[in-house]
Amino acid sequence: MYEVDNLIGGISCKSASGRTGDIFNPATGAKVGEVGLSSPMELDEAVKKALGAYSAWSRTPPLKRGRVMAEYLRLANGRREDLAREISREHGKTHADARGEVSRGLEIVEFASGISHFLKGEFSREVGPKIDTHSERQPLGVVAGITPFNFPAMVPMWMFPMAIGCGNCFILKPSERVPSSANLACELLYEAGLPEGVLSVVHGDKAVVDAILDHPDIRAVSFVGSTPIAEYVYKRGTDSGKRVQALGGAKNHMVVMPDADMDQAADALMGSGFGSAGERCMAISVVVPVGEETSKRLVEKLSPRVSSLRIGPSTDDKAEMGPVITKESKSRICGLIERGVSQGANLVVDGRDFRLQGYEDGYFLGGSLFDGVTPEMEIYTQEIFGPVLSVMTPQTFESAMDLINAHEYGNGTSIFTRDGNAAREFSRSIEVGMVGINVPIPVPVAFHSFGGWKRSLFGSHGIYGPEAVHFYTRLKTTTSRWSDGITKGAVFTFPSG
What we know:
The protein is α/β, with parallel strands linked by helices. It contains 16 helices and 23 strands.
């Protein structure tokens, strides 16, 4: 049994609230640790530390801030396996998947190490007689991030390296279900030379979330989680005068055209639908083969693959999928599968009865595959966030796009085809923020930005990359005149060149 403490300004300290949350190993169902659930007063202490550090850090040359990130990248690269083990222990995902998560997070750190380039301003000479104008991007102050359970190291790395690189101080509130990897990731940044107070980790539940959203000295909040909570965070945060980016849920579709390579499409669907037990906001949960013949061929290829998924704990190097995060998640997913059956969908593969010898108390599910799903069914309207793949079969390419565009979510989507014209039209016309063409999980690389449309994103900025620079800074423009003499006489008209 272990305890996870706060990291206030770089110093580890126990929560004084007297409340704790249990940490479970999803593979065994056993309690393995406890995390302190902080009070608003402890958040306030972190904010005070950040305010004390902000002036010096914001005035630190961007090149030096970037060097801290470069050293952080070096140290974190050397601790990849440790970070991955912390993720797997508390989340349950396979070790290979956890390693992949760490790698994608460190790509953002690498991007942030070049922050001086992205903070360059603009300059215009002689915008008027002996008048010059320059613009710059300045940090906001103290900012915060609220991150989900499904990527406990990567999503924090999507936030704090960019925010801190831009000159802000950052407070992280990770998911209380998976707190350890966030602590390790932030401790390494202090080891890399970050000054005391610039970064804090405050563990907690809704009490801390609300305190972050209401705190008058926190200027901006980044959030990743479900759509109902994203909407709540956005409204409460903006009502408090904060800048907010709140990334919500998804229902990601993959269109499979008749000319697609069916083996390639089936392999892509297995990885994107069942990797990380489907607990990804970019997981493909709906496959949309165009036409009955395409659907029949694809289901025939998918069914044996889903039935033979290798499922096991993270210690099994051959496991393709681990457990879901909690007992409650497993129960909710099973309930949605049952409702899918009762509402008329054809359950081709049923993963509810999966049992793993020696891990009977773990939160394991087998993969499930539905065919004949229709738009009004709950398994289509709701984000299942589990190892369940649904097949819907429109008869035309146009109706496939209409189906996707009608959904309330617009996070990610893909099309598998050999037809360049179809792919081009799909990319142009689909109302979704991230699009893959023969790519099943179209998560942008670090030097682009991540963000969905519609009810998958609340706010005007995506996360990481160039969008993060704009979110974590504000524009200042200075117009100046330096002349040999002073123009006499007042000017009452609006100035112009």
